[in-house]
Amino acid sequence: MPAHATGSGTISFGLVSIPVKLYTAAASQSVSFNLLHAKCGSRIKLQNFCPVCNEVVDRAALVRGYEFAKDQYVRVGDEELKGLEGEASKVIDIAEFVPLTSVDPIYFEKTYYLGPDKGGEKAYRLLADAMGAHGRVALAKFVMRGKESLVLIRPAQGGLMLHTMYFADEVRSFGEIEKGESAKIKEGELALALQLIDGLSSDAFNPEKYRDEYRERVLELVNQKVEGKEVTAAGPQVQRAQVIDLMEALKQSLAKRAAAPPALPSVAPAAAAEKKPLAKAKRAEPVPAKKAQAGKK
After folding, report:
1. 189-199 vs 246-259: helix axis angle to the nearest 10?
2. Which of 100, 140, 218, 255 is 20 to 30 A removed from 291 (C-alpha atoms)?
3. How far apart are CA 92 and CA 13, in angstroms?
4. Is residue 219 within 8 Å of 31, Cβ to Cβ?
5. What's the CA gap between 234 and 218, in Å, rounded?
6. How far apart are CA 261 and CA 183, in angstroms?
7. Are 141 and 93 in contact (CB under 8 A)?
8. Looking at residue 280, what is its pLDDT?
9. How many angstroms separate the CA atoms of 294 and 47, rounded?
10. 7-26+86-170 sits in which CATH class?
11. Farthest-apart Cα atoms in the chain, separation
């Protein structure tokens, strides 16, 4: 199935404009469930209820409201919000180029692939090659779905990726959290910790090595229930000893690491495909917190 663009825009820097299309780069595969009535097993319907009028409200009768004081709201229309976006809503106006290493990953929110739109192939290719050669990424602002986002554009895998980012006032301060500064590190503990890290180190991140084993167990449980089997669900039991002597714990970790057999090669994609589970993770639309609570009652 060909990739489907979720939006479009124009990268602008200097006098250069590059029309682009946005494609979702990743999607969560978490297993989601519907809420059922325990008595009959039917899926329940979540409704918008007005406690003042004591009636169910149709979606068409809903308007946006911003709470400026306790139980006091000012109404804001969709057209008013649309008008604030202005003509710049489709323009990804590059403000500056910076080294990627200077951007803390805490600011990253979501990733999109960027592909050239009609007529923008040459300029797209030029920007991707120039940024790659210079070792820089671009910072810009872009309005997406009514929300202005700080975005980062970087060259990757022969093309350009766009990361939506949090603004500085959206990132919580780490300064109020205790970080163990008062702890006293014994002589030799740091050296052993570094040795343990070296033993667990790899030259590169290989995402194929990691699987969502919890999701696999959930799908296996669902498959067995679909087949009418009696199931007793139990997750893997991991024994965690209380750390009393950190030095001794580090030594035992190193000894255990040295005695461990070499890791087996990962399962080939073709072999893994043969073991594909019956049930598939179905993505559900996000449910507002108040509605979710209402559905659980």
Report:
1. 20
2. 218
3. 9
4. yes
5. 11
6. 35
7. yes
8. 47
9. 9
10. mainly beta
11. 70
CB 120 within 8 A of CB 19: yes
Give pLDDT, residue 106: 94
Contact 219, 281 (CB under 8 A): yes
Listed by start position, the domains of the chain span: 7-26+86-170
Please count the other Cβ atoms lying within 10 Å of the Cβ belonging to residue 96: 10
Q: Which residue has the tokens 């033993």?
A: 199
Q: How many helices (H) and strands (E) does the chain have?
A: 7, 11
Token digits of residue 238: 């991991």
pLDDT tens digits along 134-186: 999 999 998 877 778 899 999 999 999 999 999 999 999 998 889 888 888 88
Residue pair 192/250 in contact by the 8 Å Cβ criterion: yes
DSSP 8-41: EEEEEETTEEEEEEEEE-----------B-TTT-
Distance CA 276, CA 69 (A): 52
Report which secondary-structure segment, H or E, holds 282.
Answer: none
Tell me how crowded residue 108 is: count the other CB atoms within 10 A of its CB.
Answer: 13
Q: How far is CA 288 from CA 1, 47, 204, 283, in A?
A: 31, 12, 39, 15
What are the structure tokens assigned to 20, written together?
Answer: 């682009």
Angle at 110 between CA 105 and CA 112, to 5 degrees: 115
